[in-house]
């Protein structure tokens, strides 16, 4: 049973509205009690969504803006052992700090009961907004009761790299379709046609988008690449498994859905007696730290985490102030970082790939065609 506060019960200390409007005037505009206005101002639950909206509308009518000093923003992220999530969390914290917002970073298993319990435990701590960073918002079949819990408390939230179904909360994402196009275009210009994709799990929003972008990019260049996509986990082990399967299909280049997967592909390529980039070119995704020190340094499509953090900072402050924000998803353009893991297609590698597809004695198609 949810905890509610009686209308006529003990009063909590309430921050007085800015400007000339009093609690009584705001209550009159919203047609509610002063106690209800107080609960909305202090982000307490026990207020229906319709009533909360009426109070928020009244606050906007009188020009009230919530002070944000020392208010908390809950940032839900997967494990910070992954360098890309650690860097994103740091940038988001830096973007919120100038507004007086304090970031509480929580590592969760996305889409699980653990995530929901974490949120439930912290909502009573004065949380002003929640940011889902590649959390349950990225998993199609996740337990989305966490969103219903947040909405029932009237806490504004936004998502990074994919939004929740049937939610109009703001979303900021790297343009994963464009990321796939950038990688394919670069490898195609180097002469590669047998390009494989190390894709993330089915039902993961960024992974699904990259598959769509990859297939479209290949199709626009006359290549049907359905058999050149292998799904796996985003880690190095997943990259090794997916790359091994694609090497058996005679690819000459690999596009990975994370830098960890790309490093796993390095291992598979070495085990096959091949080398990077002489035999197989590899492109990662994220631009994790220390990539300059891999052997060879990894070419990657970089997530623009600084620009994403700027959008998150702006949207979070707008939401906390009770102002309307656009309902369309903000897609931020990625960029390729060229290093030593990509190179031109070797003619002898193309010929060997063609023989591997049709057998020594069978007539076949032109070398390099799928």
Automatic annotation (TrEMBL):
Organism of origin: Salana multivorans
Database matches in Gene3D superfamilies: 3.40.50.2300, lambda repressor-like DNA-binding domains
Keywords tagged on the record: DNA-binding, Transcription, Transcription regulation
Residues of the HTH lacI-type domain: 21-74
Source species taxonomy: Bacteria, Bacillati, Actinomycetota, Actinomycetes, Micrococcales
Composition bias type Basic and acidic residues, residue spans: 358-370
Residue ranges of the TM segments: none
Name of the protein this chain belongs to: LacI family transcriptional regulator
Keyword Transmembrane found: no
InterPro entries noted in UniProt: HTH_LacI (IPR000843), LacI/GalR-like_sensor (IPR046335), Lambda_DNA-bd_dom_sf (IPR010982), Peripla_BP_I (IPR028082)
SUPFAM superfamilies the UniProt entry points to: lambda repressor-like DNA-binding domains, Periplasmic binding protein-like I
UniProt cross-references to Pfam families, sorted A to Z: LacI, Peripla_BP_3
Molecular function GO terms recorded: DNA-binding transcription factor activity; transcription cis-regulatory region binding
Residue span of region Disordered: 341-370
This protein's record includes keyword Transit peptide: no
């Amino acid at each position: 049973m949810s905890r509610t506060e009686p209308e006529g019960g003990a009063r909590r200390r309430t921050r007085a509205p800015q400007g000339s409007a009093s609690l009584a005037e705001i209550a009159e505009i919203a047609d509610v009690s002063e106690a209800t206005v107080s609960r909305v101002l202090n982000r307490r639950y026990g207020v229906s969504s319709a009533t909360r909206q009426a109070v928020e509308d009244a606050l906007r009518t009188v020009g009230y803006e919530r002070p944000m000093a020392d208010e908390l923003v809950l940032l839900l992220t997967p494990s910070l052992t992954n360098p890309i999530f650690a860097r994103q969390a740091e940038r988001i914290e830096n973007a919120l700090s100038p507004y007086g917002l304090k970031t509480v970073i929580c590592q969760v298993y996305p889409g699980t009961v653990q995530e929901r319990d974490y949120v439930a435990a912290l909502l009573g701590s004065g949380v002003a907004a929640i940011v889902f960073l590649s959390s349950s918002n990225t998993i199609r079949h996740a337990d989305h009761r966490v969103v219903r819990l947040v909405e029932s408390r009237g806490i504004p939230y936004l998502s990074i790299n994919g939004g929740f179904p049937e939610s109009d909360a703001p979303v900021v994402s790297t343009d994963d379709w464009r990321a796939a196009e950038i990688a394919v275009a670069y490898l195609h210009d180097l002469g590669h046609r047998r390009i494989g994709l190390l894709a993330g799990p089915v039902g993961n929003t960024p992974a699904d988008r990259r598959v769509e972008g990859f297939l479209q990019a290949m199709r626009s260049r006359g290549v049907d690449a359905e058999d050149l996509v292998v799904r796996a986990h985003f880690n190095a082990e997943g990259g090794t498994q997916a790359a091994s399967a694609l090497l058996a299909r005679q690819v000459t280049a690999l596009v990975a859905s994370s830098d960890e997967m790309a490093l796993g592909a390095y291992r598979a390529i070495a085990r096959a007696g091949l080398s990077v980039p002489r035999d197989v070119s590899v492109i990662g995704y994220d631009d994790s730290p220390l990539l300059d020190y891999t052997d060879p340094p990894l070419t990657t499509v970089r997530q623009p985490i600084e620009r994403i953090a700027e959008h998150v900072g702006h949207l979070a402050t707008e939401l906390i102030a009770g102002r309307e924000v656009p309902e369309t998803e903000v897609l931020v353009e990625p960029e390729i970082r060229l290093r030593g893991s990509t190179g031109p297609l070797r003619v002898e590698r193309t010929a060997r790939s063609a023989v591997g597809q049709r057998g020594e004695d069978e007539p076949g198609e032109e070398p390099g065609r799928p």
